[in-house]
Amino acid sequence: MYMDRHQPDLGAAAWTMPARCAACGVRMASLCGGIPARALEALNRIGRKRVLRRGEALIWQGDVAEQVGILHHGLVKLSAALEDGREQMLGLAFPADFVGGIGERPSSYGVTALTETELCIFPRGALPALIEAHPEIGHALLMRAYDELDQLRRWMLLLGRTSAEERVASLLRQFAARGTCPPGAPVSLPLTRQQMAELLGLTIETVSRKLTAMKRERVIALPDLRSFVILDAAALAMLAADTP
Amino acid sequence: MYMDRHQPDLGAAAWTMPARCAACGVRMASLCGGIPARALEALNRIGRKRVLRRGEALIWQGDVAEQVGILHHGLVKLSAALEDGREQMLGLAFPADFVGGIGERPSSYGVTALTETELCIFPRGALPALIEAHPEIGHALLMRAYDELDQLRRWMLLLGRTSAEERVASLLRQFAARGTCPPGAPVSLPLTRQQMAELLGLTIETVSRKLTAMKRERVIALPDLRSFVILDAAALAMLAADTP
DNA sequence: CGGTAGGTTGACTAGGATCAACTTTGGTGG
DNA sequence: CCACCAAAGTTGATCCTAGTCAACCTACCG
Fold first, then answer.
1. Which of A54, A162, A238, B75 lies 20 to 30 A from B94 at CA?
2. 3-state class (DSSP) for residue B113
3. Which residue on chain B is closest to A166 by alpha carbon?
4. Shortest CA distance to B162 belongs to which of B206, B118, B130, B122?
5. Would the pLDDT of A243 be above 50?
6. Please, what is the Cα angle at B193 between B189 and B196, to 5 degrees?
7. What is the pLDDT of residue A100?
8. Cα–Cα distance measured from residue B222 to residue A131, given in angstroms and rounded to the nearest whole number
9. What is the pTM of this model?
10. B183 touches A187 (CB < 8 A)
């Protein structure tokens, strides 16, 4: 998938894009897309590829993360748990997303692969110097951090003030909006019922019941466990109470 | 409170700290504390003081914010509402906190003063150039953004997975931790019951009932409506289920 | 004094959790 | 190919927490 990072750059000039970055499918959508070649090269120098198996963690809640990463393939969850085991998913990271923080504090959440996942990882400790040398990287991180704040705030409104039905409808709409698919086509649902429940602050039974109810009302169809079809987009939007 | 910004700087040398910044009570705790004098001066040049009356908004949900600010005195809330009026507070900003984003997107939340509030405001549009000229400002914003992400994630766990009692106990503990007060002393409670409910994703009645229950159990005392005393810190910690 | 905003308390309700049984799906090895 | 098994999902009955609705209290202000 990647070319060997030790392969000599064609031409070795200061501004040549690293070969594996040139081959990277998510480069333009990620952090790496908005930075000049110099900065990209610096990033490439300290980054390496890593594969996480399903269920494997990149960052543990309570530990000081030593790695940050940019997702290539797969899906990871950010989640926090209470000591008695109750767990709340805090968000998902999709390809091109950046995961991890900069500070030295123990992470208040864990990062775990939900599917086989491939990412570019970087040692967290190298970031401050990197940002100082290449302010564009800092700027790109800042923009992403504000985007993430925005998403989290929207999700808090959902968790604090909406009904189970609104939450489920809202989640389906978000998945539908993410994959740019023709209306009426099946949308892939990369989460199990349990994972949807964790994300929505509900139980698995409630998620299942609400999905069944929407199916019964002909708002959606459930061709199999890992996809759904929107039959009545207007009704779904109504159920979601305008939480996009 | 501030000196007139048009007053000539004593000496006008490039590195003199602006007079009103020297007099600023929250400078060291805020964004402005971690940046070199050059950057501080640049900030000072575009900033001005603003007072918000109780209930007055700095940023409206749905509008593109034209101002960002650093709090001096007072208390503001960040909150988002659904179209039917349900409202969820997303956080509070205390003196020294930075409010506002950088992007041009319409704000997904509003910023409103809960008390008479004084802040330094800056035109949002000036930030990108400012950050480019003074990367330290960008870095300081980045650190603050990650701190805020952390806070929000902790709050999401609260909203998604904890009981009303745990939420109320957790809030009281946070207020107690904020003001460095001797144990046993009354802690100021700057929110009305309604505002606590908005913040905790509960109703005013539930908040009132839980407070009364804790008072009945001699965990706290409620000398008046705007303060409380922790009588049994261990019991309160227990009730908060280790959500600090 | 009366009015109002904020707060408390009680009775009742409903939405979602819990507990339990059962079904479907998908993978593995004989 | 099928039998078997574990994991995931569904459905039903019941319970309980927090929401709703309503009455009432209290402090403060003109």
1. A162
2. strand
3. B82
4. B206
5. yes
6. 75
7. 97
8. 49
9. 0.91
10. no
For tokens 């994630």, the residue is B153
| pLDDT at res. A19 | 86
Residues of B in contact with A143 (CB under 8 A): 102-103
What is residue B15's predicted lDDT score, i.e. its pLDDT?
62
pLDDT for the residue numbered A16: 73
* Secondary structure tally for chain A: helices H, strands E: 8, 11
Contacts of residue A228, Cβ cutoff 8 Å, sequence gap at least 6 = A172, A186, A187, A189, A211, A220, A221, A222
> Each residue of A122-174: pLDDT tens digit?
999 999 999 999 999 999 999 999 999 999 999 999 999 999 999 999 999 99
B115: alpha, beta or left? (left if phi > 0; alpha if psi -120 to 50): beta
Does residue A16 lie within 7 Å of nucleic acid chain C, judged by its CB? no
What is the DSSP secondary-structure string of B204-218? Answer: HHHHHHHHHHHHHTT
Under 8 Å between Cβ of B47 and B88:
no
Residue B220, both tokens: 């706290």
Residue indicated by tokens 């429940």: A197
Q: How far apart are CA B161 and CA B14, in angstroms?
A: 53
Instruction: Indicate the burial class of B108 (C-beta count within 10 angstroms; 0-12, 13-18, 19 or more).
Output: middle
* Strand C and B212 CB separated by under 7 Å: yes
pLDDT at A51 over 70: yes
- What pLDDT does B4 receive? 46
Cα distance between residue A236 and residue A231, in whole Å: 9
Question: A152 and B149: CB-CB below 8 Å?
Answer: yes
* The pLDDT value given to residue A20: 86
Tell me, yes or no, if A242 comes closer than 8 A to chain B by beta carbon.
yes
* Sheet with A227-230: strands ordered across: A187-188, A227-230, A220-224
Task: State residue A15's pLDDT score.
Answer: 63
Tens of pLDDT along B180-204?
A: 778 789 999 999 999 999 999 999 9
Please report, as a single letter, which amino acid is at residue A238: M
Cα separation, B148 vs B60, in Å, equals 20
How is residue B15 written in tokens?
A: 């590195």
Residues of B in contact with A153 (CB under 8 A): 78, 80, 90, 108-109, 152
* pLDDT tens digits, A73-91: 999 999 999 999 999 999 9
Distance from CA of B135 to the nearest CA of A (A): 6
- The token pair at B185 is 């002393």
Query: Of A65, A156, A61, nearest to B242 (Cα)?
Result: A61
Q: CA-CA distance, B171 to B244, in Å (whole number)?
A: 9
Supply angle C-alpha A15, A21, A22, rounded to 5.
80
Phi, psi for B70 (deg, rounded to 5): -120, 125
B50 vs A19: which has the higher pLDDT: B50
Look up residue B136 and give its two tokens.
């330290």
